[in-house]
Amino acid sequence: MATTVASWRDSYKGMSSDNIKGLVLALSSSVFIGASFIVKKKGLKKAGASGVRAGSGGYSYLYEPLWWIGMITMIVGEIANFAAYAFAPAILVTPLGALSIIISAVLAHIILRERLHIFGVLGCALCVVGSITIVLHAPQEREIESVIEVWDLATEPAFLFYAALVIAAVFVLIFNFVPDYGQTHIMVYIGICSLVGSLSVMSVKAIGIALKLTLSGMNQLIYPQTWAFTMVVITCVLTQMNYLNKALDTFNTAVVSPIYYVMFTSLTILASVIMFKDWDRQSPTQIVTEMCGFVTILSGTFLLHKTKDMADGMFITRCLITGSAALPIRIPKHSDDDGFENEGIPLKRQDAMRSASH
């Protein structure tokens, strides 16, 4: 028994101090970001009641103080997240965004009256378990001594190919799919945010490393590569903010949050593995364990998503009676006690359900 314990201790070296700093920053970031989704949603509802909705191309939310409070909260969370990437690998920091889903779902249940069922609670628990699994088996941060090293990693053929695919996909979604399907298919807006987000995280990590090195006495601000990464971040963040606002205003918050998390995290981990070669420093067992943790998180977010399908008991009864697996794109909205509209669940094929019930 003692031999087994000693062997385990030898194989598990624990988290580095940088990884611990990144972990704390990532957790605090998730708290702020999770809360910001709800505050911004409230602001978007109030703005939509007196002007053109963001989902319809309006910008009246810019005059709503509540939306700005939510935006400031999100900025604080993003700053903490930004700092986390300077200390820990993306494969550790990004999955911890699952905590923001839990906070968002709970607050949506309390404040927005978007019902959270027992399976939603189970989904939250799975997200926590998966996050802990990833934290315990995350790779150590790669030692980088100059932003030039990051630039060299970003300009390798494999990552350039990935970036080209992402940019092409984003342009196709914006010009070919947004006009016709943006208001009815949640994956259009979320797809744009997630694809662009994977590139922004890589650039954020580069800037974070540059600032960390600068503060330690090695000035990285003199390199044009630092400012090139900065321009990429600004462009990507503005794009993400625009289409995330449209998604939040058009679809149910408790559906937007998990789907965005799943796509954004998956693409970010893929980008990080390609660019920073995180898995090159890990054993197959560690990689498989991390993937199991990630799948556990995905299962949790799936449960949180599917729980929202149970919000209307009559709707489920109709599904059971008709034997149909088809689900509507959006159920009708109804007003809450504040006089604002509660959003229905953005699912698929409402007309098919109606015809089947007749």
Automatic annotation (TrEMBL):
UniProt keyword terms in alphabetical order: Cell membrane, Endosome, Ion transport, Magnesium, Membrane, Transmembrane, Transmembrane helix, Transport
Membrane topology type: Multi-pass membrane protein
Listed transmembrane segments: 20-39, 60-80, 86-112, 119-139, 159-179, 186-210, 222-243, 255-275, 287-304
Compartments where located: Cell membrane; Early endosome
Entry annotated with the keyword Transmembrane helix: yes
Gene Ontology CC annotations of this record: early endosome; plasma membrane
Source organism, top-level taxon: Eukaryota
Location, primary (coarse class): membrane
Family annotation (Pfam families): Mg_trans_NIPA (PF05653)
An example molecular function term from Gene Ontology annotations: magnesium ion transmembrane transporter activity
Function of the molecule: Acts as a Mg(2+) transporter. Can also transport other divalent cations such as Fe(2+), Sr(2+), Ba(2+), Mn(2+) and Co(2+) but to a much less extent than Mg(2+).
Family note: Belongs to the NIPA (TC 2.A.7) family.
Oligomeric and partner information: Homodimer.
Designated name of the protein: Probable magnesium transporter
Naturally occurring in which organism (per UniProt): Linum tenue
